[in-house]
Design brief:
Length: 218
């Protein structure tokens, strides 16, 4: 089994970025304004951190916008190389984003709520460069679009992974104690972690080392 890539999300400073990269992260997640959840930082700080990330490491802007104009305007403030779309988009929005941002990768989040998420992921995989499975709930009055710290049904996640041809990232409540099992069940291209490597909201080098060690031993 291939060792998955590791994306560290909720990066909140250039120091955290350096720590994550030094530990072996392949991608960093930078959280823009959200209706709920942890890790939100200003667009100015996202831009500053992005400029400090060396080219081999991917920089992900997490945006909750769902219309092309707002997403493009958000991207223009930060210039990451990847946009993580945490809410559902209409198909024509992807077309508009491709035309406006031809060199930027699009990663679509699918929040795994049940078997219906399989079809949602299949539709999204026809448009996005990769799929990221998380444990939010965009149907609540105040949307949960990530950072819940909850796991979801990995059996459904595996079904999604087997039914699409695009790379798949697995997120949602992962930590050093459960990531090995998660990888064995789902066999994702990459894993994504936020709260599982943090203490009191701050990136914890010890937890990060344990997490990456668990991923590498699979």
């Amino acid at each position: 089994m291939m060792v998955p890539k590791v994306k560290i999300c909720c990066i909140s400073s250039t120091e955290e970025a350096r720590t994550a990269i030094k530990s072996g992260a392949s991608a960093l997640g930078l959280v823009g304004d959200m209706p709920s959840g942890p890790g939100v930082i200003s667009d100015a700080l996202i831009r500053e951190i992005t400029q400090s990330i060396p080219p081999p490491v991917a920089s992900f802007l997490l945006t909750c916008h769902t219309d092309a104009r707002s997403i493009i305007m958000h991207y223009a403030l930060v210039h990451t190389n990847t946009i993580q779309l945490v809410d559902v988009l209409e198909p024509e929005i992807y077309v508009q984003l491709r035309e406006a941002l031809p060199g930027v990768k699009l990663v679509q989040v699918v929040h795994v709520l049940g078997e219906e998420s399989v079809e949602e992921a299949q539709r999204a995989a026809g448009q996005a460069d990769a799929i990221l499975l998380d444990s939010g709930n965009p149907h609540l009055k105040v949307k949960e679009l990530g950072g819940t710290g909850r796991i979801h049904d990995w059996v459904i996640s595996r079904k999604i992974r087997e039914s699409i041809s695009k790379p798949l990232f697995l997120a949602g409540g992962l930590n050093s104690e459960n990531v090995r099992e998660a990888i064995e069940v789902v066999q994702p291209f990459g894993v994504d972690v936020c709260s599982g490597v943090r203490t009191n909201g701050h990136l914890d080098p010890y937890k990060l080392e344990k997490f990456l060690d668990a991923v590498g031993k699979v």
